[in-house]
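User: I'm putting together a small comparison set for a docking exercise, and I want a reference complex before I start. The sequence is below, and the ligand is phosphoric acid mono(formamide)ester. Could you produce the 3D structure with the ligand included, as structure tokens?
Assistant: Of course. I'll restate your input first, then give the structure tokens for the complex.
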Amino acid sequence: MKHLLSTLDLSYQDAISILDTAEAMSAVGEREVKKLPALRGRTVVNLFFEDSTRTRISFEAAAKRLSADVINFSAKGSSVSKGESLKDTAQTLAAIGADAVVIRHGASGAPARLAGSGWIDAAVLNAGDGTHEHPTQALLDAFTMRRHWARLHGTGSQGTDLSGMHVAIVGDILHSRVARSDLWLLKTLGADVTLVAPPTLLPFGVETWPCTVSYSLDETLETRPDAVMMLRVQAERMHSAFFPTVREYSRRWGFDDVRLDRLDALGLEDTILLHPGPMNRGLEISSRAADSRRSTVLEQVSNGVSVRMAALYLLLSGEGTSQRTPQEASA
Ligand code: CP
């Protein structure tokens, strides 16, 4: 594996290897193990053409915990705003000696273009491209679900997958790179997935995707999902009037207080609520639901650092999909 561009082309073995390595990484950053020397002398560039809080600081924390040097590059305030091309930006990064480029871009396919261009000989990690994919978000979501699934079954997570788990992904599927990356990865890991959305927020051709499609969140809750992933309504990608109305969306597709109580009434004690963030509280999720015991929102953020450490480590250390732990490799 030279790059991490999508979960659609991520094999089962590579997915398990990243999740298992992330388990090993999860102790790093705590009191006893502050840092690993694994990527000392390597340079990771965060190249962000779109806004980000979680993904950017998470990749930065991950690279630093592996002792890499980190350069943060935001298109705002750079020569990109003077019209500099992706090619010239990439060649500038190559001249600086970047070993890995973490790229977020508004254009679907920009990371693949960079990886296949020959402009730069660095590992490319997709941090979200247009409406296409967000593979490290999917990996951290799967990591969070796998831990939950293992706890429920009284087993360890290492080496396990999500066989038998039922996951509902709810909301603005049309514009969501998270929904796409999650779906491909969850299917690879053996989960059953239901996509829930208003008909106007589903993409063309969704009926050919490997999942069930529903227009009703209430009916989907009756099917007893083990995990419900609420998506952000991406108003910035909607170029025409938002339909349904905000009020109708919130009433029919929002995870509100009534639906939170409904999980208890249905006896769904162990169903968890995920959200990739940032959240529109009061639109796709109520504050009570977001802050409830079922919510894994902050756990997802913490897990994201471990997953991104694993991805950087496997791509840059030359360990490939080795099952050796990073601590063993650094020893
Ligand atoms: N989940 C996610 O990608 O969040 P950011 O936009 O804050 O990075």
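The beta strands are 43-48, 69-74, 100-105, 123-129, 166-170, 192-196, 212-214, 227-230, 272-274. The pocket of phosphoric acid mono(formamide)ester is lined by residues 52-55, 128, 137, 276-278 (CB under 6 Å).
User: Thanks, that's exactly what I needed.
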